[in-house]
Write a structure and sequence with these properties.
Layout lengths: L2 H14 L16 E5 L10 E4 L5 E4 L2 E3 L2 E2 L3 E5 L4 E5 L10 E4 L5 E4 L2 E2 L1 E2 L3 E5 L4 E5 L10 E4 L5 E4 L10 E8 L4 E12 L3 E4 L5 E4 L10 E5 L4 E4 L11 E4 L5 E4 L14 E5 L4 E4 L15 E3 L3 E4 L7 E4 L4 E4 L12 E4 L5 E4 L12 E5 L1
Antiparallel strand pairs: 1-32, 2-3, 3-6, 4-5, 6-7, 8-9, 9-12, 10-11, 12-13, 14-15, 15-16, 16-17, 18-19, 19-20, 20-21, 22-23, 23-24, 24-25, 26-27, 27-28, 28-29, 30-31, 31-32
Length: 367
């Protein structure tokens, strides 16, 4: 704007009391803040974190560094803001699946111990103890596990050895009998994929790695107990995150391509269950991978994206943009945990840097 016209506008504003707003002076949207919390009792990455019925969080297993795995577990109490010890698992493991069952107990399944394991156990919050149950039908390192609407758990993919490629087989954990049942296979082998429960009870399985990182997606239908193909992702990705949006669509963000550390992604996309298609979304502010499998819904329209960067971001479903949260993590932590608490805040904990050494640091995100 030329000086003469700018002076005229300012004169008119002062004279009339009018209010003007320039785009460059727009007020930033408040998307919450991340602050440091009391550290965990032990440095952990690749652990599981499960919200219990009493509002506390079970932190189990994980590793201090490669080949140094934990049996130990601890409990985060939001009332005190502190971690306290609880019973040990029967097996030291990392990369396990953990699911809160309708009974209030927590299923711990698979992961890596001395190689991929088929071991499973239950944690009872009432006693603070883990008890072994029957083995899964396959060895599974880092499988996905999804609580279905009928109370059973779908366990899919993972690795049956120490290499980076996944398997296609899947099974159900029946909560009434505490037994596992093989149910056939997905169309593609996968590890480091995401599995998201949709509003209609189906499960979206997306990305991951078989012989290579893929852009394939499929749906598990509990009514038919079969997997059916759906539209392909726009970008092949694994070690990404996914979250159910308030309108029933699914956001998938970040991850990596075949180059792993050298191929981290900032791209994101959205799956629409009504059309079976993926469409491009805005990009993350930071490229990041080795993320929590599930992004926590915060507020009424936002998904929290944490890990793989010091910055924490929120996806705002109303604007379709990723916004950087106030405050930072102490490092670019990978395979950290993200757990939404009952008051709407989120516990972020652990992770490791690219030197494989884990941290005990923890943070609280508040909307």
């Amino acid at each position: 704007m030329k000086p003469f016209y700018l002076a005229l506008v300012l004169f008119l504003v002062v004279a009339t009391g009018a209010v003007i707003s320039l785009e460059s002076a727009s007020t930033p949207i408040n998307v919450g803040t991340v602050t440091a919390a009391v550290p965990m009792l032990a440095p952990r990455s690749g652990h599981s974190a499960t919200l219990l019925p009493n509002g506390k969080v079970l932190i189990a297993g994980g590793m201090r560094r490669n080949h140094d795995f934990y049996k130990s577990a601890e409990i985060y109490d939001p009332a005190t803001g502190k971690f306290q010890p609880t019973g040990d698992m029967n097996l030291a493991r990392v990369g396990q699946a953990a699911v809160l069952l309708r009974s209030g107990k927590v299923l711990i399944a698979g992961g890596w111990a001395n190689g991929a394991t088929d071991s499973a156990e239950l944690y009872d919050p009432g006693t603070g103890k883990f008890s072994q149950i029957g083995k899964m039908t396959s060895l599974r390192g880092r499988p996905s596990a999804t609580l279905l609407d009928n109370g059973d758990v779908l366990i899919a993919g993972g690795a049956d050895h120490d290499s980076s490629g996944g398997i296609a087989s899947a099974e159900l954990f029946h909560t009434d009998t505490l037994k596992f049942e093989a149910i056939g296979s997905m169309h593609y082998a996968r590890i480091a994929h995401t599995a998201t429960l949709l509003r209609d009870g189906r499960v979206l399985i997306a990305g991951g790695r078989g012989e290579a990182v893929n852009n394939f997606a499929e749906l598990y239908d509990p009514k038919t107990r079969r997997f059916v193909l759906t539209g392909n992702l726009l970008t092949a990705r694994y070690k990404h995150t996914a979250g159910l949006l308030p309108d029933g669509r699914v956001l998938l963000a970040g991850g990596s391509d075949e180059r792993d550390w050298n191929g981290t992604l900032s791209s994101a996309e959205i799956y629409d269950p009504h059309t079976g298609r993926f469409t491009a979304a805005a990009s993350l502010n930071d490229d990041r991978f080795k993320l929590p499998d599930e992004s926590a819904l915060v507020g009424s329209n936002e998904l929290l994206i944490a890990g793989g960067s010091k910055e924490v971001e929120v996806y705002d479903a109303r604007t379709g943009k990723f916004l950087v949260v106030s405050g930072q993590l102490s490092g670019s932590w990978h395979f950290m945990s993200e757990t939404r608490l009952n008051d709407g805040s989120v516990l972020l904990a652990g992770g490791y840097a690219n030197n494989d050494k884990a941290t005990a640091d923890a943070w609280i995100y508040r909307p």
